[in-house]
Amino acid sequence: MHLHIVGARPNFMKAAPVVDQLDKIGSRPKLVHTGQHYDEKMSGVFFEELGMPEPDLNLGVGSGSHAQQTAALMVALEEVFVDLGPERVVVYGDINSTLAATVTASKMHIPVAHVEAGLRSFDRRMPEEVNRVVTDSLSDLHFTTSPEAKDHLLAEGVSEDGIHFVGNPMIDTLLRFRDTVDPAPVRKEYGVEKDFALVTVHRPSNVDDPAAAGALVEGLRRVSQRLPVLVPLHPRGRAMLEEQGLGSIEGLKVVDPVGYLEFLALLASARVVLTDSGGIQEETTVLGVPCLTLRENTERPITVTMGSNRLVGNKPAVVESALDEVLSGAKGGKVPPLWDGQAGKRIADTLVSLESS
């Protein structure tokens, strides 16, 4: 039996097609939700929207500092691993739940498969980068989403036998639902019936430091002078951004996080997206929506080389200039290889073949 660990909304979109395929071939996995995201809009609603089975266990760990959260996750997951005795643990992405499950399983001599392995920003100031490096170093099975990930893994000493280029399971989820959502009523609900900019921000580099948050807010103020701005705001950093004046910008509307299907409708119909999220860089690439990434680096460079993504940081003048270029140009970009809606099947087939070998 393999145990799949999820803990935050990006995990759910990646795990859903894998769990679905395993169900179809009669190999029902056990699903553990750590509760790293515990707000209904950030977590619970996703299971219903994505058609995922309810988790077999919900640990309800919640928030805290990185050390507090990771420690609590490790304690809770150790009990789960002792009770269930999984043959393999499957982890997704780069959140603290991913790190905690990997370290705990490794110390208990349980093999680990990492979905979305080999992504690198080469910026160790990002907590997620630390999580990626540690997770990949301890995993024995690496499912990669893009060709350059294999080079990163090989350079770090990972055995080529355990690397499987499968494509992007999060894109499986996007393609499954893309044509089922109607943007019109969602746009009307949020008051963005004309061209608009969709914004998501939550990275520490943008929301923890007052100077950085202030620069970001000024950049968004300039964006709002070009077209309406909608910001479904992640709880992380909300107080800092509002302290810097985010909520008082004319033409910019701040709303609570929205469910996956509503967000997909907004994402697909936006004129431009500004984000510091890795997953949204990938989704806009497939949708062909121009994306300005509010970071100096990305662990998903294929979205820049092939897609419609551009790194702009958070300096207001740079953001403003990049926006002007987007608004004067056309949508473009190509879809990366194997981002075809079949990644979940490739992962499930590999897991099952290893179980039976």
Rg from C-alpha positions?
20 Å
The dominant shape is: globular
CATH-defined fold name of the largest domain: Rossmann fold
CATH superfamily membership of the largest domain, which one? Glycogen Phosphorylase B
Main sheet characteristics:
7 strands, parallel
Number of strands: 13
Helix content: 40-55%
C-alpha termini separation: 14 Å
CATH class of the largest domain: Alpha Beta
The number of domains: 2
The strands making up the biggest β-sheet line up spatially as 3-2-1-4-5-6-7
Mean pLDDT: 94
CATH architecture of the largest domain: 3-Layer(aba) Sandwich
SSE string: EHEHEHEHEHEHEHHEHHEHEHEHEHEHH
Count helical runs. 16
Q: What's this model, at a glance?
A:
Helices cover 48% and strands 14% of the residues. The protein is α/β, with parallel strands linked by helices. The strands form two sheets. Strands 3-2-1-4-5-6-7 form a seven-stranded parallel beta sheet, sandwiched between helices.
Task: Map the helices and strands.
Layout: E1 2-6, H1 9-24, E2 30-33, H2 40-50, E3 57-58, H3 66-84, E4 88-92, H4 96-107, E5 112-117, H5 127-138, E6 141-144, H6 147-155, E7 163-165, H7 169-178, H8 183-190, E8 197-200, H9 204-207, H10 210-224, E9 229-232, H11 238-243, E10 252-255, H12 260-269, E11 272-275, H13 278-287, E12 291-293, H14 302-305, E13 309-311, H15 316-328, H16 343-356
Parallel strand pairs: 1-2, 1-4, 2-3, 4-5, 5-6, 6-7, 8-9, 8-11, 9-10, 11-12, 12-13
Helix pairs in contact: 1-2, 1-7, 1-16, 3-4, 4-5, 8-12, 10-15
